[in-house]
């Protein structure tokens, strides 16, 4: 059972207040404002991300959670400038990274940021690594791209240092190995070494442990957290595993069908979840303390982009849905006046009782 889920609401509130007081003093690194991403397809213009806003500060971990198809990876690709074009295109909003709007940069201009200032660990390392290059050369390649005056021997030494840093045994052997000669956990560590080689300010992890067994998963997550502590890197953790979120995250962004539905600190989310979708995700976590014969599951599926419902996108699956939910889309508003806990649900507005 993840540790944060078992605390009381009072303890969660106290932990949340401490986290907020600590985080507000940190310098803002990434500020996404009213981001819109549209897919232009044969079926017309489909909204992949709608009016998304959030902030990341230096040295903190933001978890972006939701089921498959909720827009988590699309958000990461938008920040990295790796949206598949066509059909995807940023159609509104800003992605302010350390004072620069990345949404306005060309692909050539984005290369100066990727690798050096922003790194990304992709979901499946076997499809992300070059099968005909050794691990050492792939790490060295990124170092040389952003340090063109560095000679290859120095870059090799730096790459070997990164392999050691991510806890790979027999680093010299792995340096000379090809991806197919490595296990899944080793390949994921190589991906982390590539992402951290130039010590970026922001590390985006797109479900970095999905294909790994539980033991290796724990090691990878501990490694990412240790890198954050040692290098001061801000981490965006994209996942659907709420247990991982409770252990790793400082702040949590819950997404559904391309919309932001809840946004607050981790301790507050697990002790005082507000949106019915967030409650469903938390209730879906299996517990050794419960003697239930059947696990809870949210009924239905995430809607297709071409079949988005009117009003609140979650209303077809929501047990509390009313007429207003089916007609109007709720705004993301503070819960009980708390600016650090926002929720997009009509239940917490004056219109709910009408």
From TrEMBL:
The keyword Coiled coil does not apply. It comes from Olsenella absiana. The keyword Cell membrane applies. Belongs to the ABC transporter superfamily. It is found in: Cell membrane. Keywords: ATP-binding, Cell membrane, Membrane, Nucleotide-binding, Transport. It comes from the Bacteria. CDD domains: ABC_NikE_OppD_transporters. This is ABC transporter ATP-binding protein. Residues 30-282 form the ABC transporter domain. One of its GO terms (molecular function) is ATP binding. Its main location: membrane.
């Amino acid at each position: 059972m993840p540790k944060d889920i078992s605390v009381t609401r009072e303890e969660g509130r106290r932990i949340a207040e401490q986290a907020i007081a600590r985080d507000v003093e940190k310098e803002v690194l990434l500020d996404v404002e009213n981001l819109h991403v549209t897919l232009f397809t044969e079926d017309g213009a489909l909204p992949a991300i709608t009016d998304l806003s959030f902030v990341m500060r230096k040295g903190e971990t933001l978890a972006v959670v939701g089921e498959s198809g909720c827009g988590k990876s699309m958000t990461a690709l938008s920040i990295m400038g790796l949206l598949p074009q066509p059909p995807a295109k940023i159609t509104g909003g800003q992605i302010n990274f350390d004072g620069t709007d990345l949404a306005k940069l060309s692909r050539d201009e984005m290369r100066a940021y990727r690798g050096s200032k922003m790194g990304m660990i992709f979901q499946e390392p076997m499809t992300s690594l070059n099968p005909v290059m050794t691990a050492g050369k792939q790490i060295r390649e990124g170092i040389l791209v952003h340090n063109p005056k560095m000679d290859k021997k120095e870059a090799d030494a730096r790459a070997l240092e990164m392999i050691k840093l991510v806890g790979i045994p027999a680093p010299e052997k792995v340096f000379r190995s090809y991806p197919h000669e490595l296990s899944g956990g080793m390949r994921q560590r190589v991906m982390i070494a590539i992402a951290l080689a130039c010590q970026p300010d922001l590390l985006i992890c797109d479900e970095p442990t999905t294909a790994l067994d539980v033991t290796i998963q724990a090691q990878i997550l501990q490694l990412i957290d240790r890198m954050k502590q040692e290098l001061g890197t801000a981490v965006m953790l994209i996942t659907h595993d709420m247990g991982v979120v409770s252990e790793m995250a400082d702040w949590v962004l819950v997404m559904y069908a391309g919309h932001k539905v809840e946004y607050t600190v981790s301790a507050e989310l697990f002790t005082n979840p507000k949106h019915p979708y967030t409650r469903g995700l938390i209730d879906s976590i299996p517990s050794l303390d419960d003697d239930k014969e059947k696990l809870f599951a949210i009924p239905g599926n995430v809607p297709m982009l071409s079949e988005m419902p009117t009003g609140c996108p979650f209303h077809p699956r929501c047990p509390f849905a009313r007429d207003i939910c089916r007609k109007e889309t709720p705004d993301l508003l503070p819960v009980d006046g708390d600016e650090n806990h926002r929720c997009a649900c009509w239940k917490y507005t004056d219109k709910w009782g009408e």
